[in-house]
Specification:
Number of helices: 7
Number of strands: 28
Structural class: alpha/beta
CATH class of the largest domain: Alpha Beta
Radius of gyration: 23 Å
Strand content: 25-35%
Number of domains: 2
Distance between the termini: 47 Å
Helix content: 10-25%
CATH topology of the largest domain: Spore Coat Polysaccharide Biosynthesis Protein SpsA, Chain A
Shape: elongated
Largest sheet: 8 strands, mixed
């Protein structure tokens, strides 16, 4: 059978409550495409990622695209959507759902599970079952939903309208939309093909503080599973222009140094010591500071003699001199938020209202 040709306009929609795409996006060369991102309207009560879609029915329709690729903004993976779209066309699907093979014990009560036939047509869906059904192709595995969908746009809009008008719906693709359309339309699964090519399949849901922290800490390991430096599959993002990273003071008692860390442009390590940490743009670590196992967002200033470990520091935070974070969790709980695994997050109240950088 001859493969269908990829033609038409494609809207790639990233639905996220905390992240979005800024500036002109790099669209695939294989089709006339548009990349958009819509954020959840907090006032309306939408907090989950795909639940943002019903709020933006007009925006989706106004693009007049042939296909819509729906993504979540809190997942990390490398995937060639062209392959998924090609299968969508070849199978004559109305909807295609990306799935990843997972161990049944790890997937139980954590992920939505897709049941398929031998041709990858979806037969059923269960949201976080205790005993997930095994995969048709590999009985030792289960097919877990990745939260990535391709819709024929002319089908997506009436589905969203119907779901938005249902007072019983929670407006979630997995819980509400998929089960409703399985008997009416051709829904297929696409088995995830990892472009990371570095060890086991890499797909992370970073929708919790601890998961987000762990994914970042993996990046600063000697050989991270997720490779940021793969020239064959570069990561493209919008970047501000800053001068190069600078470290100053070579005095043994006051040495500016960053070890096993990622430090972004414009940051200055001024007589402080940074270990196993990720630093954003325009961060200043002042003299006699120690920063360890932490994520420091943009425009943070850490005062002299401060000690920070196992923490996430929000953008524009100024830590006074002699601040200690991560050394006394009971004291930290009175001032900050401490996760289940002991990660301390320091957040400015203004960040809840400001646009992300």
């Amino acid at each position: 059978m001859r493969a269908a040709r990829l033609t038409g306009k494609i809207s790639v929609a990233e639905f996220a409550s905390a992240t979005h795409i800024r500036g002109p996006a790099s669209c695939p060369s294989w089709a006339t495409s548009s990349v958009f991102s819509w954020r959840a309207d907090r006032a309306s009560g939408y907090g989950r990622s795909p639940a943002t879609a019903p709020q933006n029915i007009y925006s989706i329709g106004s693009e007049r695209s042939t296909y819509a690729i729906v993504l979540s903004g809190d997942h990390i993976y490398k995937m060639n959507y062209r392959k998924m779209l090609q299968q969508h066309l070849d199978s004559g699907a109305h909807v295609t759902v990306a799935t990843i093979e997972a161990d049944p014990t790890e997937a139980a009560k954590r992920f939505g599970i897709i049941e398929t036939d031998a041709q990858w047509r979806v037969l059923g869906f269960k949201e976080k079952p205790a005993e997930p059904k095994r995969a048709a192709h590999r009985p030792e595995k289960v097919n877990a939903s990745m939260g990535v969908y391709i819709f024929n746009t002319q089908l997506l809009i009436p589905i969203l309208i119907s779901d938005a008008e249902d007072p019983e719906s929670t407006h979630d693709f997995g819980r509400d939309v998929l089960p409703r359309i399985l008997s009416k339309y051709r829904v297929f699964a696409y088995n995830f093909e990892d472009e990371n090519r570095n060890g086991p399949l890499y797909w992370r849901d970073v929708g919790t503080i601890d998961a987000y922290y762990e994914a970042n800490m993996d990046l600063v390991s000697v050989t991270p599973i997720f490779n940021l430096y793969d020239k064959g599959w570069p990561l493209r993002t919008w970047q501000q222009q800053y001068p190069p990273v600078k470290s100053v003071f070579a005095d043994p008692e006051r040495m500016g140094v960053a070890l096993d860390s990622i430090v972004s442009g414009g940051s200055i390590i001024s007589g402080g010591r940074v270990r196993r940490s990720v630093l954003g743009y325009d961060v200043r670590v002042n003299s006699f500071c120690e920063v360890e196992n932490s994520i420091i967002f943009n425009h943070v200033n850490i005062g002299r003699h401060s000690r920070v470990r196992n923490a996430i520091i929000d953008r524009h935070v100024v830590l006074p001199e002699h601040t200690e974070i991560g050394y006394d969790l009971e004291a930290d709980r009175t001032r900050y938020h401490v996760s289940e695994k002991g990660v301390v997050t320091v957040v400015r109240e203004e960040s809840m209202l400001e646009e992300p950088e």
